[in-house]
């Protein structure tokens, strides 16, 4: 039997919706080999943005109680390591790194003002693989290298040891039932399908963009040979939620300058900061009203930075006319 006939992979991308900082992709794996599959694991090899969670909401329909418990305990241990590493890293960063962190966090906080979901801390990309648990040796080494540096009053080391003890008991029971040593992967009966959901923090974008997402699935059949399958799909990421209002505010400033210099013909006039602030506020309000919302239909909509910029320029140019029209309507 050819390797391509062992499993069937179906990727289901979910289009990124404006107003959210996250998007997700689901990967359905079906066992069509005619034999039970063991040690099935799915890895992301190419993604757009930062991976937030792995298999947190894995469809456990075809998992035994022990395997589901093992999966949850491993993820709990990994989360504990991520938290401990983040705190340890914060204590030892240089001034330049602290400045870079502050800049990134400032951008994230600004973006979250226009987003339905708040930003979440993530591990540096070069440390993600190092903090994952693939073997029992990883459990013990991460305890020694990361968890042991937590302060004595912290509950994290105690929780880690409790979960480690639980995982050891679960693995002992699985070894008696299945005759296999520690494995992060899961078993998949013949003809069964399991869903692996992946969530990502989308990159900050000013306009829509198509990006590729790739995954690798590894598994074993009767022998100890590791079989591999890959799958790729393309996702469409819409502009970030802050793109339109930011364009609206910048456009309002540009429109105000155009009106102040070209239309009024008074290039030497002193800038009226109160009027400028009002134009910026008007550009923000109009851009928010005109920004694209998936659940509503509008006569005029804009969905990226350029559209917000144009709306803002018009608001800055014709601020008095717009205010008079609104006043007449009210």
How would you concisely characterize the structure shown here?
This protein has eight helices and eight strands, in the order ββββααααββββαααα. The protein has 330 residues and is of the alpha+beta class.
Features:
330 residues; alpha+beta; four-stranded antiparallel β-sheet; 8 strands
Overall geometry: elongated
Physical arrangement of strands within the biggest beta sheet = 1-2-6-4
The SS-based structural class is alpha+beta
Distance between the termini: 74 Å
| Biggest beta-sheet profile | 4 strands, antiparallel
- The total of helices stands at 8
Strand content: 15-25%
Please state the oligomeric state of the protein chains shown.
single chain
Runs with pLDDT <50, length 5+? Answer: none
Number of strands: 8
What is the radius of gyration? Answer: 26 Å
Question: Helicity level, as a percent range?
Answer: 40-55%
Can you tell me about this structure?
The chain has helices spanning 65-91, 95-112, 136-145, 156-178, 243-263, 273-290, 305-317, 319-329; strands spanning 7-13, 22-31, 37-46, 50-54, 186-188, 193-201, 209-220, 226-237. The relative contact order is 0.18. The strands form two sheets. A four-stranded antiparallel sheet has the order 1-2-6-4, with no helix packed on it. It has a four-stranded antiparallel sheet with strand order 5-3-7-8, with no helix packed on it. The longest helix is centred in the N-terminal third of the chain and has 27 residues, at 65-91. α5 (243-263) packs parallel to α7 (305-317) and α6 (273-290) crosses α7. The protein has eight helices and eight strands; from the N terminus they run ββββααααββββαααα. It is of the alpha+beta class. The mean pLDDT is 78.
């Amino acid at each position: 039997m050819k390797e391509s006939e062992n499993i069937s992979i179906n990727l289901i991308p979910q289009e990124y919706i404006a107003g959210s900082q996250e998007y997700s992709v689901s990967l359905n794996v079906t066992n069509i080999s005619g034999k039970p599959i063991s040690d099935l694991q799915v890895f992301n090899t190419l993604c757009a943005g930062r991976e937030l969670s792995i298999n947190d909401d894995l469809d456990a329909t075809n998992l035994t109680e022990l395997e589901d418990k093992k999966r949850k305990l491993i993820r709990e241990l990994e989360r504990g390591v991520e938290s401990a590493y983040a705190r340890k890293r914060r204590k030892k960063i240089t001034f330049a790194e602290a400045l870079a962190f502050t800049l990134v966090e400032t951008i994230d906080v600004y973006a979250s003002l226009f987003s339905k979901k708040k930003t979440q801390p993530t591990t540096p990309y070069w440390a993600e693989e190092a903090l994952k648990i693939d073997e029992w040796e990883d459990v013990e080494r991460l305890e020694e290298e990361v968890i042991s540096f937590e302060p004595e009053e912290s509950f994290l080391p105690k929780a880690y040891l409790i979960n480690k003890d639980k995982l050891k008991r679960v693995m002992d029971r699985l070894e008696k039932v299945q005759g296999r040593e520690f494995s992060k992967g899961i078993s998949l009966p013949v003809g069964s399908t399991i869903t692996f959901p992946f969530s990502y923090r989308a990159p900050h974008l000013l306009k829509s963009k198509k990006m590729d997402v790739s995954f690798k699935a590894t598994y074993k059949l009767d022998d100890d040979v590791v079989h591999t399958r890959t799958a790729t799909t393309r996702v469409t990421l819409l502009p970030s939620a802050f793109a339109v209002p930011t364009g609206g505010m910048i456009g309002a400033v540009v429109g105000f300058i155009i009106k102040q210099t070209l239309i009024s013909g008074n290039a030497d006039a002193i800038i009226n900061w109160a009027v400028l602030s009002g134009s910026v506020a008007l550009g923000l309000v109009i851009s928010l009203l005109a920004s694209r919302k998936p659940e509503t239909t509008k006569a005029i909509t804009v969905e990226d930075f350029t559209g917000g910029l144009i709306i803002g320029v018009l608001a800055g140019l014709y601020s008095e006319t717009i205010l008079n029209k609104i006043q007449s309507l009210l």
